[in-house]
Task: inverse folding
């Protein structure tokens, strides 16, 4: 006896397309290496954008723990409209 039952998924369901519903088409976020100051303390995650700091010479101190900060780079989202002073 041949069963005429479907597999329960219903018509129009294409299994191969399932993964497409898990990926939202999001706008590409532009990121680039940005100069930052990073806290030299291993236990502190403090950092700031170098061009946002008011220090023009020497190393700033971490606003969180007060340690010295080292120059570094981070992959950060590009700010499309930097405020001009
Ligand atoms: Zn710190």
Result:
């Amino acid at each position: 006896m041949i069963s005429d039952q479907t597999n329960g998924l219903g018509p129009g369901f294409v299994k191969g397309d399932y993964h497409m519903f898990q990926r939202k088409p999001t706008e590409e976020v532009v990121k680039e290496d940005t100069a930052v100051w990073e806290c030299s303390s291993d236990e502190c995650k403090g950092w700031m954008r170098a061009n946002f700091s008011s220090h023009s010479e020497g190393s700033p101190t971490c606003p969180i723990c007060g340690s010295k900060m080292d120059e570094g780079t981070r992959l950060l989202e590009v700010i499309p409209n930097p405020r001009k002073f």
Q: What stands out?
A: Residues 39, 41, 44, 46, 62, 64-65, 67 surround zinc ion (CB under 6 Å). Residues 35-80 form one domain. Residues 11 and 26 are 29 Å apart (CA to CA). The chain is about 0% helix and 25% strand.
